């Protein structure tokens, strides 16, 4: 029973006491005045009566009511029901107010002078029960009595209120006396009536129904809940959902459970209270235990900045004050919003629970939603009444909690039963079994205070149960079956709602409320009411005393609490497994684990070794780990299992692997089950010394986690306590139910039984049990102190991890066994890292372990009630335990060091190149698989990776060599290597291996040769060794100077610094290079004073050029000026040798071949040669990155060059590099113009300059230079009349000019692609095929009206004249596209005028620079602006390409697939652009226009384009010599910055690797694919160059220019070093040598057409990914270092010879992708034949012929034979046999059956291609394929038609038979033309040839003698010739073949 009201208080406005101008409230009266003992009077009620502050108001306000909640110090809640009304103040009071109020914050003083002011007064009921309606009625009645002046005294009503006693919760109590016992109070007139109505009839004696009256003619029924454990919510939950909506309330719900701060805002106080009450109601069965203030007074707002969680309500009036709260979730009830700050993350319910809960809630709140789309919705779909709806929502949340906490009782540990049950919750096990370890929400809830309260309240196994206990125990199955079906869930929810409603309203029918309200008149009339009277406290106190006395005299009401055993519900285990979280095919895996363990214990070690990798993979799964622990348990006898070394090793490996995937909380209990096992398995080390498994499994997080040890401890204690009581009690119980079905009783059930019996036991018995339990806990604590010291103390405590950090340590102990020091000091590191001294005793490790164990012991002992004496004893014991264990460990450690090392795979030595030396010897590492599938066995085949071996660092390469970890491929050798110079990225990684245990550190090394090494250092590699490896690697990768690279240091005994002596090769060369450099330096120092970059120098101060400057700068000198002097006269003698070297160089030879000039000594050099070789740059003074000799127009003096070069970046002015042999058009290269050059180029001539400025003259100089180039072209000098304007006007095409007609449109289309696809309208940009906007620079249409002719604006003059760019004009586009422009002047139709308009010189320029170009007035050159790919783009694209081709880790994301990444890298797009521009230039040159490529700095894209153009146009460059020359000329001499772009030295490290040359090689590869017969070299040649371009093995691709090479003295080295003939310095020499030996670089299909110009397709769809990027050869590393291959082969042969034991050898050879080198294992036929030929010659002792000679011989014999037999050429037959018929030779793809040379053009336009017209005298490409017949003449000894009888039941058929004596076979075809052989009869199988007889179905009218039979060992062939003579011929021929054989 409980009082309905504890206190009644009257609170009024305090007129005397005002603080800072604000009103205060004060308690006027309170009853009773003395505090109740059981509930003290709460402080600060006056604040809560007016939460917004006490104020006087000018108008009377309506009375208000709300309930505030106060929490006292014992966290008891007091409900304060405040009823507030307003009373007028009389004048004396007002005056008092005026005095203080004049300065108050009211705006106008008029208010103060108001005739009347009203002050608030509150009547407050304080109660511990929450009956809002009852309080509202009672206080309303008191107010009514006061206002309406009813006859009942107020004292009586209040006295009755305070003496009301009602039951707390319903029960079945019969004895019932009226609560409001007023019979002893004589002055109450209402007493008798009250007593009469309160005497309950016998049928209505229910406790949950109470009728009360306060004696003022009122009556009300109070229904108390049946079970007070369930919250009472009225309709507050439903209201909350209506105000905020489902999602918002769910957010608040999750926020409250995960302990966030929640603030409600509303302008209604009662709503705030209801919302808070509603939120608490849905959290049931959890109880909110933080700050809970539904109504917070304004004065206490600073409470909101408390750091603890809270639920608080505040009036919206204070909204602005809540704005700056950063971590508070604000719910605005009036606006229906929930605001979550950015910094707050709310964990939501786990899916699918969240979704299901939302669905259920919407079905309750909005049932119409489901049917809103139906055509005939059900009639009555209104939601339930608010009160019912409220219960339904609560039922949904109850259902939710039942699902969240299902099976929680199975994770309770009971650690004490007497005197009080002590219970702990095993969180990890609960989460693990639910497989929700990752779930944020549940983790936070289980860690929260509310859940701790839940466990302590609901944990005890013997107590009263409620609805939730029943739900979570008995309805789990039902909930799980129904969860997917919302309607079934709703039915369940309705049932629960019914129970909740019944609990709150046991008698919904009884609703007797008779309470008077104040009359309307008294409310409305504003008469001066009497203020609320002062009550007579004596009278009220009398009531109270009477009631107390009566309660004392009546017998105490004992309500028997129904206690029972709490049911646990179904165990969790099955639930999860049914959810399907068991691993797939686990049965098979478990079988493997079991077998492996059996093998180990049966000592079948080989079998176990084979299974080991599979077992370690299986142990990733939980079921396999559980299985392992169960299996191991079976092998433990009496807590001990002694193993031998190898068994021990395997068991430890499996344990480590099992523990490795355990999280630190051990949610699956794996570590817990292993704990007893690690102290059981051991091995004998020596006399009396045993090593246990625990010393080898310490490196796991789980052992250092306190929660793990606590959970373990509690579960062990529970088992022991259970055993304790099972012994004492259940000995007899088992006998009683001896029927056989004894179910094991759970610890909680046992505890419940004990709790039930506890009151019946005697005091002694109780004491004895308490003591027994306490000592059980104590003994377990000692046991755990031991266990923890086992797992926390490292094996080698003395050194405390010093061994690991001291480099190699002492070698014996390092290599011993991973058991010894893999774990050494694992704990020490985690506790204490400062003890790095030799003499530091073991104390620091010991201390930290002791501290850890002490912390543990304190915690568990305090929780489980161990006595203080025992705890002290424990604390003294622990250090001794630890010390003792350290001593035993020392002995174990000592002995374990003596163990023979565990057999690790032998380290394999790599074969090194001559001159390559080891920098760091092999370090044992594991090679981890990267993102490529091939080697991991996922593409089929056994997994080659991970592999175990060693990594070697040499001066040249980084090499891994080892064997796969998988025992099935253990005999294979895995090699992966790459040159150090190609390393692009190195990063540290931490690697977890499936094998053994943790591997501390690893490295991921990426190389631009498309290799990736992910290595993990073995535990025997000390960490500083790994660090020194990294440093060495870095030092070798980025040497200080290029002389530190391998190409220079090779063979110099590993000295990275060059000695000066070793550099010189011979004296003369030395002086020569010295002088050269000296001279160059002298000039350079003069020229570049104080300049860092190569910028044009100021020329004023230079005396030796002054004379020339004074002359007319613009003149083209005709006298014998510098250029005409002979070589010998201009060069000093000291430089002559240099020059002769220069002349010998390849470039010069090439210039002479092209007819571009010679260096002759005669003065009478032919003046009519258009070009000459200039020596102006011989000292590298003009341009340091150009070669010494340059081709320039004949009539340009060297002095001009010095001036021109200033306009171009890096001084790289235009020079000629190639000339077309037919059209004599030239190809020039230069850098882009300087920005300054461009400005001066377009300087307006109108500017008033008296003297032509220097810049202006330079631009004229430049104009003249271009003009000189144009005039050197024969086509220019031929067209005599073309230098007048009229010559260019008409753009009609001349029909007779067939060549132009055929070629021109082609260029137009190309141009359109390069420039833009649209019709270029004046003033517009067009979007080109390059994907970028290409601006077409063009000018106004040339009108040939008189005005135009007279104006100085020529075509380009318009630009200069106007001083700005004129409108863009589509002229270039149309002219090149050959579009028909209308004739502007209708001029004569003269063929000369109708000629296709075409510029003589096209300048391919960078669009960014050519913001308008400079055109000469006669329109003789055009500028084609193109978008250039920036070097940065190439660099980034290459990085992405590497990641695409060699990903570092496997990924299943669809947008990370290879093709997607390849596309993202844009590498193919870049190739497409370069090829496209190149093809355009080829076309232009082919049509007779010269082209100048003038892009960026002239050494990247320019070089690519220029080289490709020459390769496509000139067949010479497609040979070995030509290609070498091309690269030497365009890439090396013209200064492509190899060292800089390749980031080869420390200085260029920051610039990163930019593979411009690789991009060029890729383009060549694309062309090679499309024209396989046009190249003398093979694809392998290109890959070889690509590899060694990055490898730094040769000096060829080092340094940035010839100047740098001369400075180092490496340009004119002798071919090879005499001292060390193996070392090749030039890649070309190496290729030559190799090519002589073997045909590796040769392309057998080489069969060039004369003067063939190649025009490849450039669309991305035509480009293929180069297999260089994708190949991998794990058998012996990259196949580009040939010495290694030959050495490896010889080694392999030696080992094979040794191993040849006479066992039968299989001829089968398995070829693995990614492992074997295909070209080596499966060579192509020709290589194989040539090889066999050489071998046979060697066997016969003949001197073997060179392969090339053999090949050439074969080819010539083939040709002569084919000519004789007029068969197609050999190359074509070869082409056919090589299955390359689909490849195109030129752009026309020819149809096979067309007899004429017609072809279908798949090119860029559909006009007939000029190139595919048949050339006389040789078969054209189109007929080449179609004539071919695969009847190789040399192999046909005899052929003809024979009838052959088919197999059984098949008819006779005519077949074309061919007898081949060479191959010794008889082949037959369908017909003579047929190429596919239908069958072969091996002559070796033929037994006899006999005359036959006709059989059924034989051909008619054939004579009998024409039949003959051929008998083979397999079957009999019946054949028939057309006549008997023919048959005889056949028989004879076959017979002779047989006898020949």
Q: Would you write up a description of this structure?
A:
- With 1941 residues, the chain is of the alpha+beta class.
- 40% of the residues lie in helices and 13% in strands.
- The strands form 13 sheets. The chain has a 7-stranded antiparallel β-sheet, covered by helices on one side. Strands 44-43-42-41-47-46-45 form a 7-stranded antiparallel β-sheet, with helices on one face.
- α3 packs antiparallel against α4.
- The protein starts with a strand and ends with a helix.
Helix content: 25-40%
Provide the gyration radius in Å.
Answer: 51 Å
Please, what is the average pLDDT? 75
The total of helices stands at 66
Structure summary, number of beta strands: 47
Strand content: 5-15%
Identify the overall geometry: elongated
Report strand order across the widest sheet.
26-25-24-23-29-28-27
- Low-pLDDT runs: 99-113, 171-207, 574-584, 730-741, 800-842, 1054-1073, 1080-1136, 1237-1253, 1280-1305, 1317-1396, 1614-1619, 1766-1834
Report the major sheet.
Answer: 7 strands, antiparallel
Q: Indicate the structural class.
A: alpha+beta
Distance between the termini: 123 Å
């Amino acid at each position: 029973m409980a009082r309905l009201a504890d206190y009644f208080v009257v609170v009024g406005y305090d007129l005397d006491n005002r603080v800072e101008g604000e009103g205060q409230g004060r308690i006027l009266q309170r009853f009773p005045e003395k505090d109740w003992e059981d509930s003290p009077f709460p402080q600060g009620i006056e604040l809560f009566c007016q939460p917004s502050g006490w104020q006087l108001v000018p108008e009377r306000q309506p009375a208000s009511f709300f309930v505030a909640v106060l929490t006292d110090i014992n966290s008891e809640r007091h409900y304060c029901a405040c009823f507030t009304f307003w009373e007028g103040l009389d004048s004396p009071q007002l005056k008092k107010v005026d005095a203080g109020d004049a300065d108050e914050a009211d705006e106008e003083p008029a208010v103060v002078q108001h005739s009347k002011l009203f002050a608030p007064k509150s009547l407050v009921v304080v109660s511990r029960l929450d009956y809002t309606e009852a309080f509202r009625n009672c206080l309303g009645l008191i107010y009514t009595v006061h206002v309406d002046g009813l006859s009942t005294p107020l004292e009586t009503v209040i006295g009755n209120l305070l003496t009301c006693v009602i039951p707390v919760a319903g029960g079945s109590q019969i004895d019932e006396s009226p609560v409001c016992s007023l019979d002893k109070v004589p002055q109450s007139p209402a007493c008798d009536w009250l007593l009469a109505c309160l005497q309950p009839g016998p049928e209505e004696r229910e406790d949950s129904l109470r009728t009360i009256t306060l004696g003022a003619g009122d009556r009300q029924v109070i229904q108390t809940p049946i079970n007070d454990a369930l919250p009472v919510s009225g309709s507050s939950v439903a209201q909350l959902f209506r105000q905020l909506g489902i999602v918002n309330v769910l957010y608040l719900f999750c926020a409250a459970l995960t302990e966030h701060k929640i603030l409600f805002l509303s302008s209604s106080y009662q709503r705030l209270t209801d919302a808070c009450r509603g939120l608490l109601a849905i959290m049931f069965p959890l109880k909110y235990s933080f700050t809970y203030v539904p109504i917070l007074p304004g004065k206490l707002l600073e409470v909101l900045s408390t750091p603890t969680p809270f639920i608080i309500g505040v009036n919206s009036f204070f909204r602005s004050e809540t704005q700056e709260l950063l971590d508070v979730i604000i719910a605005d009830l009036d606006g229906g919003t929930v605001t979550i700050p950015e910094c707050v993350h709310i964990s939501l319910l786990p899916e699918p629970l969240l979704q299901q809960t939302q669905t259920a809630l919407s079905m309750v709140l909005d049932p119409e939603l489901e049917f809103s789309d139906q055509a005939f919705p059900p009639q009555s779909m209104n939601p339930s009444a608010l009160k019912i709806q409220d219960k339904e929502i609560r039922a949904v949340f109850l259902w939710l909690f039942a699902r969240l906490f299902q099976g929680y009782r199975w994770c309770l540990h009971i650690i004490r039963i007497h005197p009080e049950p002590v219970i702990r919750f095993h969180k990890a096990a609960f989460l693990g079994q639910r497989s929700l370890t990752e779930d944020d929400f549940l983790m936070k809830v289980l860690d929260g205070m509310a859940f701790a309260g839940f466990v302590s309240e609901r944990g005890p196994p013997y107590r009263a149960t409620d609805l939730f206990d029943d739900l979570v125990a008995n309805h789990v199955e039902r909930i799980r079956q129904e969860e997917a079906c919302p309607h079934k869930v709703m039915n369940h929810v309705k049932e629960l709602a019914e129970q909740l409603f019944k609990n709150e309203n046991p008698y919904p029918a009884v609703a007797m409320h008779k309470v008077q309200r104040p009359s309307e008149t008294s409310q409305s009339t504003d008469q001066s009411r009497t203020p609320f009277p002062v009550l007579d406290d004596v009278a009220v106190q009398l009531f109270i005393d009477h009631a107390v006395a009566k309660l004392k005299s009546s017998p105490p009401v004992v309500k028997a609490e129904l206690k029972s055993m709490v049911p646990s519900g179904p165990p969790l285990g099955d639930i999860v497994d049914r959810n399907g979280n068991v691993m797939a095919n686990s049965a098979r895996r478990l079988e493997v684990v079991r077998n492996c363990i059996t093998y180990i214990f049966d000592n079948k070690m080989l079998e176990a070794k084979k299974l080991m990798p599979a077992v370690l993979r299986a142990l990733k799964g939980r079921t396999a780990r559980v299985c392992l622990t169960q299996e191991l348990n079976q092998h433990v006898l009496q807590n001990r299992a002694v193993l031998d070394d190898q068994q021990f090793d395997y068991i430890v490996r499996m344990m480590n692997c099992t523990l490795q995937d355990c999280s630190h909380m051990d949610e699956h209990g794996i570590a817990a089950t292993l704990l007893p096992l690690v102290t059981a398995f051991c091995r004998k080390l020596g006399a009396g010394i045993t090593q246990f498994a625990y010393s080898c499994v310490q490196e796991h997080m789980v052992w250092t986690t306190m929660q793990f040890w606590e959970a373990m401890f509690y579960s062990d204690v529970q088992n022991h306590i259970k055993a304790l009581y099972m012994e004492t009690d259940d000995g007899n119980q088992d006998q009683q139910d001896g029927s056989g079905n004894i179910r094991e009783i759970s610890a909680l059930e046992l505890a419940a039984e004990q709790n039930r019996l506890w009151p019946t036991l005697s005091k002694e018995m109780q004491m004895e049990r308490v003591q027994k339990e306490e000592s059980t806990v104590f003994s377990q604590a000692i046991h755990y102190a031991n266990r923890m010291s086992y797992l926390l103390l490292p094996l080698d405590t003395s050194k405390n991890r010093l061994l690991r950090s001291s480099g190699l340590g002492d070698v014996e102990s390092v290599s011993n066994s991973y058991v010894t020091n893999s774990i050494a000091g694992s704990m020490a590191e985690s506790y204490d890292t400062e003890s790095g001294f030799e003499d530091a005793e073991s104390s620091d490790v010991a201390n930290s372990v002791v501290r850890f164990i002490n912390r543990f012991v304190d915690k568990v002992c305090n929780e489980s009630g161990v006595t203080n004496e025992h705890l002290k004893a424990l604390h003294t014991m622990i250090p001794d335990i630890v010390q003792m264990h350290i001593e035993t460990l020392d002995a174990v450690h000592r002995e374990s060091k003596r163990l023979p090392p565990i057999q690790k795979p032998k380290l394999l030595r790599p074969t090194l190149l001559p001159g390559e030396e080891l920098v760091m010897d092999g370090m044992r590492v594991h090679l981890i698989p990267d993102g490529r599938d091939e080697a991991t066995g996922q593409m089929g085949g056994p997994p080659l990776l991970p592999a175990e071996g060693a990594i070697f660092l040499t001066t040249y390469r980084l090499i891994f060599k080892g064997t796969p970890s998988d025992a099935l491929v253990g005999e294979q050798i895995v090699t992966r290597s790459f040159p150090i110079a190609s390393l692009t990225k190195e990063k540290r990684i931490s690697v977890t291996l499936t094998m053994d245990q943790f591997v501390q550190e690893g490295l991921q090394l990426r190389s631009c040769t498309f290799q990736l090494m992910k290595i993990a250092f073995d535990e025997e590699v000390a960490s500083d060794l790994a660090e020194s490896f990294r440093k060495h690697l870095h030092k070798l990768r980025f040497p200080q100077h290029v002389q530190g690279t391998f190409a220079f240091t090779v063979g110099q005994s590993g000295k990275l610094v060059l000695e000066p002596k070793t550099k010189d090769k011979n004296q003369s060369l030395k002086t020569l290079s010295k002088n050269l450099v000296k001279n160059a330096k002298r000039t350079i120092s003069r020229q570049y004073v104080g300049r860092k970059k190569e910028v044009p120098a100021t020329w004023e101060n230079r005396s030796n050029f002054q004379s020339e400057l004074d002359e007319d700068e613009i003149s083209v000198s005709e006298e014998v000026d510098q250029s005409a002097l002979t070589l010998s006269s201009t060069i000093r003698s000291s430089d002559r040798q240099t020059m002769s070297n220069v002349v010998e160089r390849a470039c010069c030879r090439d210039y002479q071949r092209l007819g571009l000039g010679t260096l002759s000594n005669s003065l009478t050099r032919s003046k009519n040669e258009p070009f000459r070789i200039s020596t102006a740059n011989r000292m590298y003074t003009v341009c340091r990155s150009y070669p010494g000799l340059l081709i320039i127009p004949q009539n340009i003096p060297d002095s001009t060059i010095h001036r021109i070069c200033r306009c171009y970046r890096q001084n790289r002015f235009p020079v000629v590099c190639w000339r077309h042999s037919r059209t004599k058009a030239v190809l020039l290269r230069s850098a882009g113009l300087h920005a300054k050059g461009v400005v001066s180029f377009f300087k307006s001539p109108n500017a008033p300059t008296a003297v032509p400025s220097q810049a202006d003259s330079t631009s004229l100089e430049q104009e003249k230079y271009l003009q000189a180039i144009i005039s050197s072209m024969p086509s220019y000098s031929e067209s005599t009349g073309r230098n007048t304007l009229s010559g260019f006007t008409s753009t009609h095409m001349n029909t007779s000019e067939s060549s132009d007609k055929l070629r021109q449109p082609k260029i137009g289309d190309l141009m359109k692609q390069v420039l833009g696809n649209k019709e270029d309208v004046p003033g517009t940009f067009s979007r080109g095929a390059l994907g970028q906007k290409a601006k077409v620079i063009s000018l106004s249409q040339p009108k040939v009206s008189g005005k135009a002719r007279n104006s100085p604006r020529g075509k380009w003059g318009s630009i200069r004249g106007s001083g700005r760019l004129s409108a863009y004009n589509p002229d270039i586009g149309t002219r090149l596209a050959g579009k028909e422009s209308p004739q502007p002047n209708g001029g004569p139709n003269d063929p000369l005028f109708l000629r296709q308009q075409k510029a003589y010189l096209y300048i391919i320029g960078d669009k960014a620079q050519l913001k308008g170009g400079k055109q000469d007035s006669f329109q003789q050159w055009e500028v084609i602006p193109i978008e250039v790919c920036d070097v940065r783009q190439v660099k980034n694209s290459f990085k992405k390409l590497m990641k695409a081709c060699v990903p570092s880790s496997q990924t299943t994301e669809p947008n990370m697939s290879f093709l997607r990444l390849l596309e993202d890298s844009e590498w193919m797009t870049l190739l497409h652009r370069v090829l496209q521009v190149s093809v355009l230039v080829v076309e232009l040159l082919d049509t007779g226009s010269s082209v100048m490529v003038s892009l960026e700095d002239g050494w990247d894209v320019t070089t690519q384009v220029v080289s490709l153009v020459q390769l496509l146009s000139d067949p010479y460059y497609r040979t070995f010599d030509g290609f070498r020359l091309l690269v030497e000329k365009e890439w090396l001499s013209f200064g492509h910055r190899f060292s800089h772009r390749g980031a080869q030295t420390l200085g260029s490290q920051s610039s990163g690797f930019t593979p411009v040359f690789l991009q060029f090689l890729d383009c060549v590869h694309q062309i090679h694919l499309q024209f396989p017969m046009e190249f003398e070299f093979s694809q392998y040649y290109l890959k070889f160059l690509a590899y060694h371009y990055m490898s730094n093995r040769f000096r060829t691709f080092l340094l940035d220019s010839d100047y740098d090479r001369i400075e180092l003295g490496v340009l004119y080295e002798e071919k090879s070093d005499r001292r060390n003939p193996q070392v090749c310095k030039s890649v070309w020499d190496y290729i030559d040598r190799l090519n002589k030996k073997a045909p590796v670089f040769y392309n057998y299909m080489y069969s060039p057409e004369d003067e063939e110009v190649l025009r490849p397709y450039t669309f991305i769809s035509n480009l293929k990914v180069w297999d260089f990027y994708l190949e991998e050869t794990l058998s012996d590393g990259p196949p580009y270092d040939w010495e290694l291959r030959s050495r490896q082969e010889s080694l392999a042969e030696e080992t094979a010879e040794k191993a040849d034991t006479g066992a039968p050898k299989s001829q089968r050879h398995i070829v693995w992708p990614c492992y074997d080198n295909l070209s080596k294992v499966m060579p192509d036929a020709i290589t194989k034949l040539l090889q066999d030929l050489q071998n046979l010659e060697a066997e016969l002792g003949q001197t073997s012929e060179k392969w090339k000679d053999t090949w050439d011989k074969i080819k010539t014999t083939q040709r002569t034979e084919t000519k004789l037999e007029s068969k197609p050429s050999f190359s074509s037959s070869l082409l056919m046999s090589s299955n390359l018929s689909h490849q195109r030779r030129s752009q026309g793809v020819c149809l096979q059956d067309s007899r004429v040379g017609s072809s279908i053009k798949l090119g860029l336009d559909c006009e007939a291609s000029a190139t595919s017209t048949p050339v006389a005298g040789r078969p054209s490409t189109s007929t080449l394929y179609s004539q071919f017949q695969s009847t190789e003449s040399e192999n046909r000894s005899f052929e003809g038609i024979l009838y052959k009888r088919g197999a059984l039941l098949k008819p006779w058929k005519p077949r074309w038979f061919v007898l081949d004596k060479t191959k010794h076979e008889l082949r037959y075809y369908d017909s003579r033309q047929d190429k596919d052989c239908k069958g072969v009869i091996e002559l070796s199988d033929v037994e006899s040839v006999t005359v036959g007889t006709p059989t059924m179905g034989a051909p008619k009218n054939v004579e009998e003698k024409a039949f003959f039979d051929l008998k083979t060992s397999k079957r009999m062939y019946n054949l028939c010739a057309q006549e008997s003579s023919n048959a005889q011929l056949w028989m004879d021929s076959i017979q002779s073949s047989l006898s020949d054989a």
